[in-house]
Design brief:
The complex is a heterodimer.
Chain A (H helix, E strand, L loop, with lengths): L1 H14 L2 H18 L6 H26 L8 H17 L5 H26 L3 H23 L12 H6 L6 E2 L2 E2 L8 H17 L1 H11 L1 H6 L4 H27 L11 H10 L11 H20 L4 H28 L8 H13 L2
Antiparallel strand pairs in A: 1-2
Helix pairs in contact in A: 2-13, 3-8, 3-11, 3-12, 3-13, 4-5, 4-6, 4-11, 5-6, 5-11, 8-9, 9-11, 12-13, 14-15
Chain B lengths: L6 H20 L7 H9 L2 H15 L7 H17 L5 H26 L3 H20 L4 E2 L4 H8 L1 E2 L2 E2 H19 L1 H11 L1 H6 L4 H26 L2 E2 L8 H10 L11 H20 L4 H46 L1
Antiparallel strand pairs in B: 1-4, 2-3
Helix pairs in contact in B: 1-13, 3-8, 3-11, 3-12, 3-13, 4-5, 4-6, 4-11, 5-6, 5-11, 7-11, 8-9, 9-11, 12-13, 12-14, 13-14
The chains are: A mainly alpha, B mainly alpha.
Chain lengths: 361, 334
């Protein structure tokens, strides 16, 4: 029984975009490493690469949780900005330690997210418009607040612990004589914790399953007794919280909290989950896929940077990758639909596949 | 009987009149001076055009996140054509419209051909086009000196009203006629209103999507042409701040987000309201951030209020229905 479940899970895994992503990442790393041996330099290439993978994985998760109910959050960057702003004020103006300032900042992000969710659930307006308007509102608010509360538009006070998380590597973490690798930054830890918690939330908790039901069919969910409005508010609050975590990570890794935090988050936040196989229509998530999607884009970015490719070409490439990935995914599903079902394949499995293909529309 | 002017538009006109009066009083009449009025209308052209560009995609239930990027690429390509490739100024500037239409067509074909969500397609396209725009001009600014004739046209006015604003109103009128009189326009509205019904009536939804994205790109191209003609030059900042105004104008103007409706006059009036906020910011010493804040909040408020009004109207209808049913039941019982 257990083994059949395992075979089915393995088959589903192979059908998902994840194996392809792993292959692509491995191939690219090998290609970059052979062409430019500097690519494997531990502290100058690998550590910054892992840092940006960690930060943007959390950004991707922030988008993924709202995609799971079929919504979008165009204000991820600004929610990260609000979180970073509040933390900066706590650390800089009030001299709070990390353990108090961080939760207050995270709560601020969650609160802004909850507000967006509340407006969406209460009025039934498209999440796209609500979060777009929200992002512009915050985009106006954040620099104004920095101007009035900080000196020189930056909060640079760092309580103990921030530098260790943001800039430390496992090279500094020693157990007796055994030290970790200086190529692995400490900042991967918060990203891993976020992945584990979100993974547990969707796979094991009742509320997480209810969120997925809401995403795949809101009406059915409502009729099955799921409080859909509350679940929608919850995921938006969670999105704001994760965005604030990412804002903190970025601030800690660059060493200061500035109004620029979050301004580059929007496209990567969609790239990760979509490349990883999270449906835009809601009802399905892939946490590992989100991480892999982010890793792929980060590897491409870093590799091309080593070859001296300019920022504008990188942007073009990221856009092309997003379109190409989705287009090949569509092609894959069309071929699934065209091919004749094999005898041993159940009708249910094919139906599930077809439904998945429709979900992308 | 058709209403000549809707309640929403009346409200917008009232807001414009009150806003202009307040600005006039605060500046002690300076706001109504010749220079001030001319510059007000000159800077109003682009918001109106990009609002209309967004409206066309909203009407088929799509959206266009690439308005700014299309406009920016079209403007920069024209600048490069004139200065580097030796194109005659007028042809180079007007080719921005063609560039816009082609880029819009690409958007439409991608949406239809790949069946990817239009949101993602236009997001990816905007990213690609931003790179192209940077690739075209880099960090330099191409000065308007290269197209002095076109710049003179952009700075000219007829009786104090800028020529480019009159041109903009003309384009708006054509868009209004397109949706009210032409078969294609009606088909776009039908596809947006109820796609299955439209399909059954023999309208090709795919064609409507392609047409809508192309027209949207074309209008962005017109906005790019206007930008070339009145800005001091073109660089990577052209189009960078178009996204919010492009959504603000149609949404405040009363276009339904689910598709199936257009409001050309409403969009024009709403763009005027947004422009007033912009104009007020230096007078009241707001910074650019505060303008974004106000406009974002107004959009949120409009959307939420519209939705609440709809819910209340639905409730009223259902109360009315139940009262009628009650009356009919009593009739039967008697």
């Amino acid at each position: 029984m257990k083994s059949r479940w395992f075979v089915r899970a393995a088959r589903a895994e192979l059908r998902s975009p994840r194996p392809l992503l792993v292959v692509l990442i491995v191939v690219l790393v090998v290609v970059f490493a052979t062409l430019k041996p500097a690519f494997l330099n531990g502290s100058f290439v690998i550590a910054p690469l892992l840092t940006s993978v960690s930060i943007f994985t959390v950004v991707g998760l922030a988008q993924m949780v709202v995609l799971s109910v079929g919504h979008m959050n165009l204000a991820v960057g600004q929610m990260a900005g609000i979180g970073a702003l509040v933390m900066g004020v706590c650390f800089d103006r009030f001299g709070m330690p990390l353990i108090i300032g961080l939760p207050i900042g995270l709560a601020a992000g969650a609160l802004v997210g909850a507000l967006a969710g509340w407006i969406i659930a209460r009025t039934g307006v498209n999440s796209f418009i609500v979060t777009l308007a929200m992002s512009f509102t915050l985009m106006g608010l954040i620099p104004t607040l920095y101007q009035s509360w900080s000196t020189g538009n930056v909060f640079s006070a760092k309580p103990t612990g921030v530098d260790e998380i943001g800039r430390g590597t496992f090279g500094d973490v020693c157990f007796g004589a055994v030290c970790g690798s200086p190529a692995v930054p400490v900042i991967v830890l918060p990203a891993l914790v976020c992945m584990l918690i979100i993974g547990y939330f969707y796979a094991r908790t009742r509320v997480g399953r209810e969120v997925l039901v809401t995403g795949s069919n809101a009406q059915t969910a409502e009729l099955s007794g799921v409080p859909t409005a509350r679940r929608i508010i919850l995921v938006h609050a969670l999105s704001g919280l994760l965005a604030a975590v990412a804002g903190f990570m970025l601030g800690a890794s660059t060493g200061s909290f500035t109004p620029a935090i979050g301004s580059e988050f929007m496209l990567p936040s969609f790239l990760g989950p979509i490349l990883g196989g999270t449906l835009l229509a809601g009802g399905a998530v892939s946490i590992v896929g989100t991480m892999l999607g982010i890793t792929l884009t980060a590897v491409i970015r870093k590799g091309l940077e080593l070859f001296g490719v300019g920022l504008e070409t990188l942007n073009v490439l990221l856009g092309v990758i997003l379109l190409a990935a989705l287009a090949t995914d569509r092609l894959r599903l069309i071929t699934v639909r065209r091919r004749r079902p094999r005898a041993e394949e159940s009708v249910a499995a094919l139906a599930a596949e077809l439904q998945e293909s429709e979900g992308h529309r | 009987m058709r209403k000549i002017i809707s309640a929403n538009n009346l409200l917008l006109i009232a807001v414009v009149v009150v806003g202009a009066t307040v600005l006039g009083l605060v500046t002690k009449g300076e706001f109504f001076g010749q220079v001030s009025v001319t510059s007000f209308f000159r800077y109003l052209s682009v918001p109106i055009l990009i609002g209309l560009a967004q409206m066309v995609t909203l009407c088929v239930g799509q959206l266009n996140l690439a308005v700014g990027a299309i406009g920016g690429v079209a403007a920069c390509l024209s600048g490069v054509m004139i200065t580097s490739w030796g194109a005659p100024p007028w042809i180079g500037a007007l080719s921005a419209i063609l560039t816009g239409a082609i880029l819009g067509l690409v958007n439409g074909l991608l949406v239809v051909g790949t069946r990817i969500n239009g949101f993602i397609v236009t997001l990816a396209m905007s990213q690609i086009l931003l790179g192209v725009q940077y690739g075209l001009v880099g960090t330099r600014t191409i000065s308007k000196d290269a197209w002095a004739d076109v710049a003179a046209f952009g700075r000219s006015d007829i009786a104090g009203i800028p020529t480019i604003f009159i041109l903009t109103l003309l384009v708006a009128a054509i868009v209004a006629l397109f949706f009210s009189q032409s078969v294609t326009g009606r088909q776009l509205l039908a596809s947006g209103g109820n796609s299955s019904a439209a399909q059954l009536a023999g309208i090709s939804i795919d064609r409507s999507l392609v047409v809508a994205h192309t027209v949207s790109g074309l209008l962005c191209g017109v906005a790019a042409f206007i930008s070339i003609s009145f800005l001091g030059g073109v660089n990577t900042s052209v189009g960078g701040d178009w996204l919010l105004p492009s959504f603000a104008a149609p949404i405040i103007g009363g276009v339904a987000l689910v598709g199936g409706s257009v409001a050309v006059l409403g969009t024009v009036l709403a763009a005027m309201v947004v422009r007033l906020v912009d104009q007020a910011s230096p007078i009241f010493k707001f910074d650019a951030g505060a303008v974004n804040f106000v406009v974002g909040a107004v959009v949120l408020g409009t959307v939420a209020l519209g939705r609440l009004r709809e819910v209340r109207a639905n409730r009223r209808v259902s109360i009315l229905r139940s009262q009628r049913a009650q009356a009919a039941l009593e009739e039967v019982n008697r």
